[in-house]
Amino acid sequence: MIDFHTHPVLVREMVEKYKELERVIREVFFIGNRLQPLETFHLQMDVAGIEKAVLLPIDCSTSKGCKIFSNEQITELCRMSKRFIGFASVDPHRADALPELERAVRELGLRGLKLSPPTQEFYPNDARLAYPLYEKAAELGIPILFHAGMSWEPQAKAKYGQPLYLEDVASDFPYLKIVIAHFAWPWVVEAAMLALKYPNVYIDTSSLYFDNPLDFLAYVMKEEIPLSLIERGLREKVLFGSNYPRVEIKKMAEAVRGLGLTEGCLRLIFKDNALRLLGEVEA
Amino acid sequence: MKIKLEKLEIQSRKGKELIDLTPDVERVVEESGVKEGLVTVLTMHTSSGIIVTEGLPCLEMDVLNHLDKLAPDQGNYYHNRYLAIDGRLGFNAGAHLRSIIGGIQVSFPIHEGQIVKGSRQRIYFAEYDGPLSRLCCIQVMGE
Question: Using a CB-CB distance cutoff of 8 angstroms, which residues of chain B are in contact with residue A34?
Fold first, then answer.
């Protein structure tokens, strides 16, 4: 079982070691909860039945003057726990984005790229700015997870998170694996359309904007789109993601398990699709 | 008068569980040197509690199950909304309500350097929204 969407922003060992992270997680990532020992992260995974978690940083050096965890810090965490799968982040505005991505993957061993267009302030279909990065990711054989839809970060505009911008990317880079995070809420239907049409587009479940995980996911996956679309058409395109620590892993897992999907479909969502995307099993 | 305060970090390991704090409270009382006085145990979180019951696993389960019935996780709660102070949604009103119902602190007299309590009574930290690292406060006052 894999959680494809977590942020290590409250890991006490890291925030106490790298003092600048305290301001970054409070003011830029915008989370107010207490720091927790790394052990809590593992226990959150344990009670949810999750074996591994993808750790996501955001390099917003140009737009926000900081990194919400650096590639080195993600690597450090991955060395502390074999249960973590580290993704890189690079700032598309920076001239060194390409060599930094190559270094993060080839030297640090990171397994994917996280981009957050609302945080980093770029349109995903900005060919001049972002296409070289997509070419590099495709060359390296890594997936890109895009924040899509609304962001709780105060300075992150939803206009950059409209998933339809990703259609150009999906179409122009057919060999690039793309994950649309948060079901792109409020553009759920658009995200589902992209995942339905493009073989290289996936969606993660890390979506919670009102009510609670159970009710919200039921609304998204049973009312905004029919559950049968997940069960039949998108069963190989949806990944379990919690968005921990904005949502507890076990609560999001309970919500996904409570939707009424078959065991076979749940196995794909919780494990097989992620393994395929990470290249651990054949496509 | 002597006053000793200790903040105890507790790592809960489950979503809901009772963690026996009695040995920690006894240790703090002993270390305080207070012979006649009062010890108070207080959780510092609004989704956890401090309760006293008999130290039996069956009772621990019954207490948690009963509190769950009174204040379940799923409910039509106003707290199910975005909280700017946290940068995330609440949706743990059940845990907050269980904390209120079960209580957040207990006090026991100290006599001749010992906690005055029934032989079956145990002092528990009650986790209602774990697993989390938590803080509880043990304060001893007296002579």
Answer: 133
* Residues A204-244: tens digit of each pLDDT: 999 999 999 999 999 999 999 999 999 999 999 999 999 99
Contact with chain A for residue B17, Cβ under 8 A: no
Chain A residues touching residue B91 (CB < 8 angstroms): 211-213, 251
Residue B84 placed within a domain:
yes
DSSP state of B23: H
ipTM: 0.93
Over 90: is that where the pLDDT of A282 sits?
no
- Nearest CB to B74 within list A34, A152, A214: A214
Complete domains list, chain A, with CATH: 2-277 (3.20.20.140)
What B81-85 contacts at long range (C-beta under 8 Å, 24+ apart), as own/partner pairs, is B81/A210, B81/A211, B82/A152, B82/A209, B82/A210, B85/A32
Nearest CA in chain A to B88: A246
Note whether residue B96 is domain-resident: yes
Shortest distance, CA A281 to any CA of chain B (angstroms): 32
Q: pLDDT per residue over A159-208, tens digit each? A: 999 999 999 999 999 999 999 999 999 999 999 999 999 999 999 999 99
Distance from chain centroid for Cα A49: 19
Residues in A touching B74 (Cβ below 8 Å): 212, 214
Distance CA A157, CA A168 (A): 20
